[in-house]
């Protein structure tokens, strides 16, 4: 039981780390560590007030891990991506690449339309992200703070849940990413009241976005399991494109393979920590 608790907290930590980096999906990480469907089911139960005590513990440990991952990632992992982008992206590439090997066994009937839809939903936003910009909080109006910021958070929250999509990438497109990560890196010290209000507004939007997309996914899982499996397979495959190491830095083939292997090794350890074989959906 205690090993399972460690696995939940570690899964949350990795999901939190993934959410810090644009192009790296928290939903993808949830799939990789084998907690994606459980998150969907538990949050859906939470919205209907039918949640069990063990699920509350699961969600609490996951949340603690995510918060720690966000704090750690905003201070340390961001530096790794800035100074060692080729190796760091190779590590995440290895995680996703080898998670596809497990997912293929779950997809018993391949459906091209859902796969293509998932693939391009990931690839197209990344192509647009190069036009991203950064907003100045000093110029934020009341309408933006109480309407646009929560709405942006809702879009980011929904994107965070879907494997392959990056909530950070959505925030970058909308102009809030750089400011958010800068505030989080200073939290809870050296933050102004305006910045705290911004984080609260953003967090409310993210919670609403997650709740809505989880409800939709829960219905889809019940009614069209094969369809959503192919959709998720497309999302994961598409997520390999934005984190291709060569897009973010330079390095040799040996370095690439070593860090891909390390990423695969982390996945192997996480699978061993589980009480059952990693099963995505």
Main attributes?
mainly alpha, globular
Strand content: under 5%
H/E element string? Answer: HHHHHHHHHHHH
Q: How many structural domains in the coordinates?
A: 1
Mean pLDDT: 78
Given helix and strand content, the structural type is mainly alpha
The profile of the biggest β sheet is:
none
Instruction: Please tally the helical runs, counting DSSP H or I stretches of 4 or more residues.
Output: 12
Radius of gyration: 18 Å
Task: Tell me what you see in this structure.
The protein is mainly α and 281 residues long. The chain has one domain (2-273). The chain is 75% helix and 0% strand. The protein contains twelve helices and no strands. The protein has helices at 2-20, 26-32, 36-47, 53-83, 85-104, 112-129, 142-161, 167-174, 177-186, 193-223, 225-239, 253-273. Helix 3 (36-47) crosses helix 10 (193-223), helix 6 packs across helix 8 and helix 10 (193-223) packs across helix 11. The longest helix is centred in the N-terminal third of the chain and has 31 residues, at 53-83. Residues 274-281 have low confidence and may be disordered. It holds the Pfam family VCA0040-like.
SSE blueprint:
Elements: H1 2-20, H2 26-32, H3 36-47, H4 53-83, H5 85-104, H6 112-129, H7 142-161, H8 167-174, H9 177-186, H10 193-223, H11 225-239, H12 253-273
Keywords: Membrane, Transmembrane, Transmembrane helix
Transmembrane segments: 6-36, 56-80, 86-103, 115-133, 153-176, 196-221, 249-270
Protein name: DUF368 domain-containing protein
């Amino acid at each position: 039981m205690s090993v399972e608790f460690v696995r939940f907290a570690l899964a949350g930590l990795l999901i939190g780390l993934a959410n810090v980096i644009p192009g790296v999906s928290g939903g993808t990480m949830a799939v990789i560590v084998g907690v994606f469907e459980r998150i969907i089911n538990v949050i859906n139960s939470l919205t209907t007030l039918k949640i069990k005590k063990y699920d509350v513990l699961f969600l609490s440990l996951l949340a603690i891990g995510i918060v720690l991952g966000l704090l750690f990632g905003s201070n340390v992992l961001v530096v790794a991506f800035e100074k060692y982008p080729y190796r760091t992206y190779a590590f995440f590439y290895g995680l996703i690449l080898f998670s596809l090997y497990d997912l293929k066994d779950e997809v018993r009937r391949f459906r091209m339309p859902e796969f293509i839809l998932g693939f391009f939903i990931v690839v197209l936003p990344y192509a647009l992200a190069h036009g991203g910009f950064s907003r100045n909080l000093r110029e934020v109006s009341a309408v933006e703070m109480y309407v646009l910021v929560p709405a942006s958070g809702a879009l980011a929250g929904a994107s965070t849940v879907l494997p392959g999509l990056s909530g950070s990438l959505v925030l970058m497109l909308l102009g809030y990413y750089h400011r958010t990560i800068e505030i989080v890196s200073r939290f809870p010290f050296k933050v102004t009241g305006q910045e705290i209000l911004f984080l609260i507004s953003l967090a409310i939007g993210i919670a609403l976005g997650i709740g809505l997309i989880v409800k939709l996914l829960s219905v889809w899982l019940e009614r069209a399991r094969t369809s959503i499996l192919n959709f998720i397979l497309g999302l994961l495959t598409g997520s390999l494109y934005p984190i291709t190491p060569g897009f973010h830095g330079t390095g040799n083939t040996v370095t690439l393979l070593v860090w891909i292997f390390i990423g695969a090794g982390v996945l192997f350890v996480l699978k061993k920590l589980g009480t059952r074989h990693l099963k995505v959906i």
